[in-house]
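dumping this here before i forget
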Amino acid sequence: MQTTRLQKIARMVREIPADAVMITSPVNRQYATTFRSSAGLCFVTKEGEGYFFTDFRYIEAATKAAGQAGYQVQMMQGSYAEEVKKLVQKHGVQTLAFEDRNMSVSEYEKFRRAAGCQLVPLEGRLEKIREIKEEAEVECIVIAQRFAEQAFEELLNYIRPGVTEKQLAAELNYRMLCHGAEGMSFDIIAVSGANSSMPHGVPSDKPVEKGDFITFDFGALYGGYHSDMTRTVAVDHVTDEMRQVYDTVLKANLACCNAMQAGAKGRDIHNLALDIIAKAGYGECFQHGLGHCVGLEIHEDPRASLKSEAVLETGNVITVEPGIYLAGRFGVRIEDMIWLSPDGPKNLTNTKKDLLVL
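structure:
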């Protein structure tokens, strides 16, 4: 029988060790209960008793979703701090874990005074649990990815000289929404020509011109889960150097997709891409990390970067996004998502990667 999220969290509480945990951030609340809301608080004891408090706006929906996840759903009567105080007293809690990475000092003081017990920091333990994706989570990521891919395939017919970067970004967003996306994973990057040399360039009023590379970095949301992909296309023609740069990035992408294996170090895979790019003479033009995991947040751990000591595990969904950026001239990035499934690595990105000249 599969371990439930409530059971995973209770086990985490025992391992801290603590008597209970309060979960306050929206992302971790959603993970714990499968329910998304702008307001709420989870409380889980080491014995596995789970409580979810929210207000009138969400109580009906929360009762269905969080209730099915094993939580006792209650409408908040006073403040969240007061509800925590009641549960601390009810369960004889002496040590209460809290999300130190997602709580302000003023919030901490409010809960500390109300709880009247020792507060111990979670130090990212919930995020660590979230690194290993359940199949239902991967299914949401795949659905989001398919929305993004369908939108991109349609966008290709819209690309022509004279259309602006802003128009391309708006069209891509519109088409993802039309296919069923809940929103964008992040602000779309759609940059052309010299602007494509900026890895996180912002779409501008610049019109697309013949001979431009256009880099699109985008993703869709579904069920609160993110997708992430990057494709670079050319308009009308490319120079020999542009083709060489593209082929080098593609070579690095393919090699690193194949190297994404459970047990591999993120740093080693990053260095594989860097070696390929450096041997082609562009080592100084690849300065960002190779990849990051995705899920309820667009950037999660573990990562594949120069300084990463992380070891990849079965269940991770991680990006592979090498790039070369020639300042003031052009840039190329190609990005896929890899799921380290129980049966081995699987590329979740279907869109072709061969150089496309429109």
